[in-house]
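User: Sequence recovery, please. Input:
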């Protein structure tokens, strides 16, 4: 079966495979994706991402949960280490191969839209028809 046969419309399939489904590319998400794509193989724990993306926990953690639900991010708890000094285990996040691909495409698309929009002109919402 060819990929175009899956939906009957190749552009619909490519659009699905090349975008974040239910996660809107907001400014905070863009910052998180930039941190994660700087080294897609690196594992980051939540507090590390909060500092790097300059986001509060109430913004970051729901975003990470949605990315994980979409299959774009993997999360894994570290094993409790005896030298942790009582610190609770960290949850590490890493882009999946698909997540890295989609993140690069979304960031490139956002950069293209930013270059096209004149200064002071609001950029159309991600996924809009305008």
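Assistant: Recovered sequence (130 residues):
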């Amino acid at each position: 079966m060819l990929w175009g046969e899956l939906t009957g419309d190749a552009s619909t399939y490519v659009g699905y495979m090349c975008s974040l489904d239910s996660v809107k590319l907001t400014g905070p998400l863009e910052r998180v994706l930039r941190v994660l794509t700087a080294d897609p193989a690196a594992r980051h724990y939540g507090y590390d991402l909060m500092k790097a993306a300059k986001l509060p926990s109430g913004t970051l953690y729901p975003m990470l949960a949605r990315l994980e639900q979409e299959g774009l991010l993997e999360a894994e708890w570290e094993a409790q280490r005896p030298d942790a000094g009582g610190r609770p285990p960290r949850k590490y996040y890493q882009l999946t191969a698909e997540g890295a691909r989609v993140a690069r495409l979304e960031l490139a698309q956002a950069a293209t839209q930013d270059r096209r929009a004149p200064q002071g002109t609001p950029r159309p919402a991600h996924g809009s028809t305008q």
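Residues 1-18 have pLDDT under 50 and may be disordered.
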